[in-house]
Amino acid sequence: MKQYETILVDQPLEGVLQVTLNRPEYSNAFNTQTGRDLYDVFHPLELEHRNYRCVVITGAGDKAFCAGGDLKERKTLSEEAWVLQHELFERTFRAVLNCPLPVLAAVNGSAFGGGLELMLLCDFAFASSNARFALTEVSLGIMPGGAGTQTLARAVGEGRAKELILTATPFTADEALQWGVVNRVFAPSQVLEKTLEAAQRIAANAPISVRQAKHSIHYGLQMDLRSGMMFELEAYQRMVTSEDRREGVLAFNEKRKPVFKGK
Q: N- or C-end of the chain: fewer Cβ atoms within 10 A?
């Protein structure tokens, strides 16, 4: 595995890529190098995704998943450097969004600002019971710029997103669960384990099927129902000729576990 300055990358389970934000002394806040490191991991996955079947993002330590942008670094940036840094962050976040593999977040602590935005770009998230969430950018003279105004509103609805963003009010893990921001809440000692269990279950399924189903859900929800159904049909038809489709049906009839190859 390639070594990075601000993140750790490893493969804890077969087919599962784990990416750990590794600046615990700064609550895993994003600096410019974090943007570069994450982009270097996620951008190639748009095309070169066959080595893995699922990605898990988490943070080092037990204090924070990610506190957002590193404001100590940003204090030193000129306006031009700030704009360039944010363009890098935007490219990085789009690379996470565009990842054809399922991306899961194991939120092991606070997720503020860009940390919450990163989590919202994942396909789903599990959180620790002591996690807290917030988009506080308007209290700093800026606004959410990592798709937060879009993803949070899609998760919780327009009215609640406006309340949370415009008041810059933090919310709890239980509230995040109630509002659909996270899928499940676990004890802090269990959240990564449970997220990896979900990733392992995903990795055991047919990879082409998983990618096509993710693709269909994501883009279909941006269409009317009839258009979404047509999109789903096109996604489905691409699997009919796959080896995995034949293997899945054969394994079912032979009463054995299928061996999927992503072909």
A: N
Q: Are residues 140 and 234 in the same domain?
A: no
Q: Which domain holds residue 164?
A: 7-204
Same domain, 108 and 238: no
Give the number of other CB atoms < 10 A from CB of residue 202.
21
Residues 242 and 225 placed together within one structural domain of the fold: yes
Torsion of CA 141, 142, 143, 144, to 10 degrees: -130
Among 4, 206, 211, 219, residue whose Cα is nearest residue 103: 211
174 plus 145 within the same structural domain = yes
pLDDT band at 115 (very low <50, low <70, confident <90, very high): very high
pLDDT in tens, 151-162: 999 999 999 999
- Given 25, 79, 80, 137, the catalytic residue: 137
Answering whether pTM is above 0.90, one says yes
Mark whether 24 and 118 lie in a shared domain.
Answer: yes
260 part of a folded domain: no
User: Which member of 5, 48, 79, 117 is catalytic?
Assistant: 117
Identify whether 117 is a catalytic site residue.
yes
Task: Select from 27, 180, 185, 43 the least CA-distant residue to 112.
Answer: 27
85, 32 Cβ separation under 8 angstroms:
yes
d(CA 81, CA 90): 14
- Is residue 197 among the annotated active site residues? no
Torsion of CA 146, 223, 178, 97, to 10 degrees: -30
Are both 60 and 107 inside the same structural domain? yes
| 259 inside domain | no
